[in-house]
Design a protein that fits this description.
The chain has about 450 residues and is mainly alpha-helical. It has 22 helices and no strands. The protein is globular. The N and C termini lie far apart (about 50 Å). About 5% of the residues have low confidence.
Amino acid sequence: MAPNITLLDYAILPFVLAAIYGIAFRFRNRHYPPGHPYRPYFLTGLTLKIVGAIFIGMVYEYYYQGGDTMNYFLHAKIINSAFDDSPVKWINLLLRIPNDSTIGYYDYISRLYWYQDPASYSVAALAAIFGMLVGTTYLPIAVIFAAISFTGMWALFRTFARIYPSFIKPVGIAVLFIPSVVVWGSGIFKDTICLFGLGWLTYGVFQMLIQRNFKSGNLILTLLSLWLVARVKIYILLAFLPALLIWVLSVYTSKIKNTAGRFLVKLFVLSAALLSTFYIMTSLGENALGRYSLDNIEQTAQITRDWIQYSSKDEGSAYDLGNIKSIGDMILTFPQAVNVSLFRPYLWESGKLIILASAIEAFLFLFLTIKLLVVVGPKRCWVTITKDPTLQFCLIFAIVFAFSVGISTGNFGTLSRYKIPCLPFYGVSILLIYYQNRPQNTQFLKFLNI
């Protein structure tokens, strides 16, 4: 099998890095001059994303010798090979216009086994577009993915830093420096695109609905991000949009001085939202959401879980949350699913080096959570959350999403990648709850020097 990373990658990569850093330095110096509180995080965050993309690419090429990221790249190569035949044919393949019976396309489509999967094919199409700029070489494309994803994470960082200007350092750590997010959210993956989308979606909603900044750029980025996330992983939106609604609603209702009036407005809007969501997931679900409709969601979770466990049966990293046959079983498994996403694998469950890295990170999250409850106390944590709409938004999304991936995965290796969208939001939550209630005589997170 021909290698995916060749000498050409290493020859082109320095020029791509020079272009990216040239833009980054100019942007930083223009917007974040010396002394600006955001300045120390910009190039550091970008560099970590780029290193993460190169690292995970080399792991898949030289250790696994294949995998999803390489399959996206192979699709991109096939798509771009059509350009030599006809630029029109290349565009048609990018947009998935022809089918395998269309004259002149069978030779391409027959090799594109994700052609009938719009979510996966979208990643390959983006890789093909970027590939046209860099000779369709893996590492340069992966670095471009990382840089674009960083813009979304930077937008998320700016959003939280704007809300909590006194806590920029913990926000920066939670959003930009979580290892699994850096690694799994930087290469040619669906998750890289989703992090870009979530970051800009959060930023856009904050700017327009909370800051009332309706610039055309904010609207375009918000709509683009919404479309991308829906296109690639629509189930993320099923967890994200309700939390986003509660965030905006809480901000606006906080201005209502009458407690009863504030409660009634919240109750009315949330009830309407729940009824609308139920209607969409039942009446419109089969066409709009497909396998993520309410009728199919349990079956989808079971099929996904069974496939992941089967395909990784020899890796020794499977987990089992019990026999789940109904929506009721899923609800009863809620605490276990959230726990497995945020706090597992435990250290003794790591049979491989890559699982050990995930276990160390999960242990750190568990330690920080327990430390928070001990130092601050459950009552003060609860009071802080109820008074802060942003913390409510972060925790609702993090917990609901952790449940959805925890119950549908069944394998720690896969879970370490699938769960990354919720980790920055959970990390922001626990650090900010602490820092808003920081005891005078306690050096929390001293070993992290924050």
